[in-house]
Design a protein that fits this description.
homodimer, 253 residues, 60s Ribosomal Protein L30, Chain: A, Alpha/beta knot, seven-stranded parallel sheet, 9 helices
Chain lengths: 253, 253
């Protein structure tokens, strides 16, 4: 991870929080850190600003800042600003809008490639959970080929609440799951707002999100090797939507 | 790169070549290496066995073997065996066969993800040029989730010759190029042998290969952000083929 994407050390993190001019992904605190007044202050400032803090082991912190000068505290900074889901919904009222929801995707290259495909396919927003999976970091930014700057990136504390908000606002919810019965290409994507949920690399989509989904679809395979990379799976579904749009609206492209 | 994927040092490389029980990707020789009798022997043995050797700068060698014990010579070992194009063609005579040709794709993660999608989509072979782009290494193997073991991997010295051989054997050649006029979904993929050519991340497909192609197709976008990751682009085209197969053959999957 590049240095401009983290702030480490107790005082530096307190200063960054007080300055309040950067976008934080989350703050990692060693579970061995003595809970001194500075750590308490960091937790307090983070809570006030709605920034997630997580307790992790020292090894994790040493991986991120190998020189060991982190004093048990590392704040991860985002290269982009996140926007609020309600603001996003409001902004796109009255137009057909597509969003992609990543349920804990863990590999930065995958997240970057997915965002790139989203922008190509006219998807307007991407929703990431604040506690699981990766948020936007410099690897995501680079792998996205700059696409992170052409899409609204929405960070939420609860994907369940986010999906419910979307449903209340006339979004259909589509989940990609390889146990599904229906094929992804049997949906007509052209006439609706939708949120497409893609699951984590190994765990797939959480049960609570599957329950909220209006459509659960699979990508059929021609062999028994049933294991697509998640960014490839997202691209396949999104470009089926694009295919339908192009076929419907004639040769405009 | 893991240690079991390289052999370095003059004597070790000579021994590996003489033992002749491993699959070599290529041999990298420092362009500052004194052309002594051992280097000459390495070049001679490599030539005899049809193994490519390339002259590179010391920096490249130091990246691959950072401890600097390589003496100006590193042999890259493949975790898989390559097969000959003619053997592949012969093996699949009489069945509809699909292959993917990578024209110098440089990122191991992309090659791994493409091979994974290929196996899911029933593609039988993947063709890689011996001198440009990546061959099969441990990162490709890992990113492919083991798919490298479920597909024929064909390494060729000339992609032009390979494409010509395929055409002589009733393969249609499809090139993916974003300058194309035709959309990829207007081809009927279900009734032919085909070779799908995907270009390098930045350079795209070589002109000589475009000239040999029967179809040049693009993936239309819904925005001006015209820049898909190459593994996503490959997945989109291959799974349009799968969609057509599934639609044609009913609900067998």
């Amino acid at each position: 991870m590049e240095n401009n994407t983290i702030v480490y050390g107790k005082n530096a993190v307190i200063e960054a929080l007080e300055a309040n001019n950067r976008t934080f992904n989350k703050i990692l605190i060693s579970n061995n850190a003595h809970s001194d007044s500075k750590i308490e202050k960091i937790k307090e400032l983070a809570s006030k600003q709605g920034i997630v803090f997580q307790f992790v082991n020292m090894q994790k912190l040493n991986q991120i800042e190998p020189e060991g000068r982190h004093q048990g505290v590392i704040a991860q900074i985002s290269p982009v600003k996140y926007i609020e889901l309600d603001d996003f919904i409001e902004k796109h009222k009255g137009e057909l809008t597509k969003v992609v929801v990543l349920d804990g995707v863990e590999d930065s290259h995958n997240v970057g490639a997915i965002i790139r495909s989203c922008v190509c396919a006219g998807v307007k927003g991407i929703i990431l959970p604040s506690r699981r999976g990766v948020l936007i970091n410099s690897t995501v930014e680079k792998t996205s080929a700059g696409a992170v700057n052409h899409i609204s990136i929405i960070k939420v504390n609860s994907l369940v609440n986010a999906i419910q908000r979307l449903k209340e606002n006339d979004y259909w919810v589509i989940a990609s799951d390889h146990h599904a019965k229906d094929n992804y290409f049997n949906i007509d994507y052209t006439n609706m707002n939708f949120a497409l949920i893609m699951g984590a690399e190994h765990a797939g989509i959480s049960r609570s999100l599957l329950k909220l989904s209006d459509f659960v679809v699979k990508i059929p395979m021609l062999t028994n090797f049933n294991s697509l990379n998640v960014s490839n799976a997202a691209a396949i579904i999104l470009f089926e939507m694009v295919r339908q749009e192009v076929e419907k609206n004639g040769k405009k492209k």
